[in-house]
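Board notes (copied after class):
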Amino acid sequence: MKLRIRGQSIRLRLTQPEVTQILQGLPVRETTLLPSQNFMYELAASESAKAIVADFADGLLRIIIPQSMALEWAGSDLVGLENKALKILIEKDFQCLTPRPSEEDEGSFPNPNAHC
């Protein structure tokens, strides 16, 4: 899972295995080891959630999406889910069109722009 934070915007990009993990009811979590405290971010689906929400406590940025929204998103051509209050964008991570040595594409979704 990739994370980008800019101002009032949080963007997550998930690979196919990570989307499958969310559908299985398991959260997807990443950890960045820092000298004073680890920074973690997590995406999870919840049957009780009514909207996409975010919270930050004890070094963990936790984003929750409604289970019904996750099911619809994962089973369709829909690329992303968005909450506009605090802009939270959750997208499928597509393979790069131009291979980059520093990018890891394993598990990424086929890029819809790859067909010319």
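Comment from the instructor: The two ends are 28 Å apart (CA to CA). The mean pLDDT is 90.
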